[in-house]
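Hi everyone,

Forwarding the result from last night's run.
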Amino acid sequence: MPQEYDVLVIGAGTGGYVAAIRAAQLGLRTAVVEKQKALGGTCLLWGCIPTKALLEHAHALKVVQQAREWGVSIASGGSGAAAVSIDMTQVHARKDRIVNGLTKGVEFLFKKNKIDWIKGTARLTGNGGVDVFEGDKQGLKARREIIVATGSTPRSVPGVAIDHERIITSDDAIHLREVPKTVAIMGSGAVGVEFASIFRRFGSDVTILELLPRLVPVEDDAVSIELAKSFRKQGITSHTGAKVTGATATAGAVAIDVQLADGTRQQIRADYLLVATGRAPVTTELNAEGAGLDMEKGYRIRSSRTSRPRKALSPRSALPDRPRARSTTITFRGAPTAIPRSAASASPSRRRARAVTMCVSERFRLRFSDERRSPVKPTGS
């Protein structure tokens, strides 16, 4: 017989573990299926947290190099910039301590709220069933809800094959043990410009290759202009309107074929090519279509499920710290997200902002309603 839970969460990233903790706080027996060795997902393990740690080290290096300007005296320093270097072994040791501390904190919250962490890879089998086919192999059954929070993974473009040695992703770049002399970065979104800043401050020669006409193309024009000025001042080379047509990795470098904005072709050589052209949803092994979900672009459900009838609410006194509110549904990029009616009456931009904050892990749906805010008596052990 499959192990039964009220709520099953697939994925323990920032969307999955927050949903699991809240479900457990509401009295629902909850389990999370996660295949990684630690909880926290991309943000804690390879993304937001470790990159901010590297940025902090890069800023500290800059301050020491400009010690005199900052009013810091170094006895052995010369008349110019301080003769300092970065110790990547120590950098990664501190970064790993920060990451481990946060992931252990999430693990503690799981134990505190009696959430079961099932280590493995999950796929949907339909009718509330989940099959864990790697790791702790077993069958699971959700009595109430399955929350899909499998997150995303770096993606490439045609003509560029990621080998994780010379042609790398952000997941690989975060663990580089040496500072490369030269690095080319394909894409100038948040990930690309963040690593450009890190590597340049560490001492690398950095070249950014962006297909669209300006850096950080999804931001306001003013942001792109100021960032381009800052990068020029730092010595970062930026090619906008540049199309990468191919990349060939060798033992010690990578050759990148680029068509520039004026139509000329150029080959750029670098120690590494960091592909930062966006991310793709992790749904290939989920068996979503096999479980009856009509998916679009790998993550979006084409047709919304009709919400179940609302049950009787608990007395207001049962939730002294959470005022009850009626709910309405606002569709954000195809994913219905329930928000309080007070937010629905706000301005369109405020509604979009609220929808974004309540959308779970790569726009998958998590329905918040009065039923979720009311204490629920556990069903079964």
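The radius of gyration is 24 Å.

Cheers,
N.
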